[in-house]
Design a protein that fits this description.
Rossmann fold, globular, 3 domains, Rna Polymerase Sigma Factor, Chain: A, alpha/beta, 16 helices
Length: 388
């Protein structure tokens, strides 16, 4: 029987890779719906590729254009995810939640209700609202698989283990384009340099997060919440090859690590074909890479963002929303050449330490709207700090 599947955020990087996997194995899938914000051209191509009958367009103008294009075709076009959910009459086997940013939170919470399994590739939703996601997962008995390569690796390594036996978990990071550059050379580095990731093909924003290593801070927060393991057990190591994605040391003395090509097809493919005997084309084991893994500790004077980990607690609070929003806004300003590279850290630090936000440091998010409202407050303060 074909697996019923929904891909939310199908025109983004993770969503596009998911669509390609489905297209190459179409005999295995019945694609129920795909969604985008406003990338009409791409989603129309995807609709033909995977023979989908439901499309969700979140941008109003794009929705109206798309609605006209499909007026005479047997494809339903929905204005938003809520409208689609109301019409859905069946249980979905697997939903890929790949809508970027906190815009993906409500669709993710809805998808949990109608899916047997969800793959979540939205770090913002997990970091800011894991307690809300976990509540829905438990309530609906929905299986969850993290999609980011590091978290999929940890999940794979410990899923059959007693968490009390875990001594340490290491997440690896390439160090980005500035790994071997002196601090003096990167303070005022242009965005064109920061987005040139040495190993991964990523969007501009996440590439800058890699250059500052803020992405590793977020990954530690994400992992602590997903696996409910004390923050003190996590470490970050520089690994320029990006071949090993996670290392777990157990109290028994056994150390396990998970390695794969620098290609998101692998965790996505394995999350969809969980426990099934299917093959994906991948690179052969490279002995040169294995013999030169080259791990090292990150330089905290260069990668100052790592210092934010000292603020993080072993529970969900609204502080994470402040941190992730401040960083997102400041990276966007950096990409627009309105602030310098060094300002991303200094202004993020200044923002999270503002007196107005202190009361959120111990407050647990109660609902998505509370998070969205706080995001607006943080954005307003960032604009004030930057005189925009």
């Amino acid at each position: 029987m074909k697996k019923k599947i929904v891909v939310l955020g199908s025109t983004g990087s993770i969503g596009s890779t998911t669509i390609q996997i489905i297209k190459n194995n179409l005999k295995d899938f019945n694609v129920i719906a795909i969604s985008t914000n406003k990338n009409i051209r791409k989603i129309l191509k995807q609709a033909k590729l995977v023979r989908v009958k439901n499309i969700i367009i979140n941008d109003k103008k794009s929705y109206l254009i798309c609605k006209k294009k499909f007026n005479k075709k047997k494809i339903n076009v929905f204005r938003n995810h809520s409208d689609f959910k109301k019409k859905l009459k069946l249980k979905i086997d697997y939903t890929m939640c790949a809508i970027s940013g906190l815009e993906g939170l409500k669709p993710t919470l809805d998808a949990i209700k109608y899916s047997s399994t969800v793959g979540i590739a939205n770090k913002e939703s997990i970091i800011c609202a894991w307690n809300l996601i976990e509540k829905e997962l438990n309530k609906n008995k929905t299986k969850f698989i993290p999609i980011d390569s590091e978290h999929f690796s940890i999940w794979s390594l410990i899923k059959n283990e007693n968490k009390n036996n875990i001594e340490q978990i290491i997440l690896t990071g390439s160090g980005g384009p500035f790994l071997n550059k002196p601090i003096s050379k990167i303070k005022y580095a242009k965005a064109s340099k920061a987005i040139k990731h040495p190993n991964w093909s990523m969007g501009k924003k996440i590439s800058v997060d890699s250059a500052t290593m803020m992405n590793k801070v977020f990954e530690v927060i994400e992992a602590q919440k997903i696996f409910n393991i004390d923050k003190s057990k996590f470490r970050i190591l520089i690994h320029p090859k990006s071949y090993v994605h996670a290392i777990v040391k157990f109290k028994s003395g056994i150390i396990k690590f998970l390695a794969h090509d620098t290609n998101m097809r692998i965790p996505i493919f394995n999350s969809i074909y969980l426990n099934e005997r299917n093959k994906i084309n991948s690179e052969k084991i490279n002995l040169s890479t294995l013999n030169n893994l080259n791990f090292s500790l990150p330089n905290k004077k260069k990668f100052t963002s790592i210092n934010f980990l000292k603020y993080i607690k072993n529970k969900n609070t609204l502080f994470e929303t402040i941190l992730i929003t401040a960083n997102d806004e400041l990276v966007n300003l950096y990409l627009k050449d309105k602030i310098n590279f060094k300002d991303i850290y200094s202004l993020t630090k200044k923002t999270v330490r503002l007196k107005i936000f202190k009361r959120y440091f111990n407050k647990k998010p109660k609902n998505p709207d509370e998070i969205i409202n706080l995001v607006k407050k943080v954005r307003f303060k960032i604009n004030q700090l930057c005189n925009i």
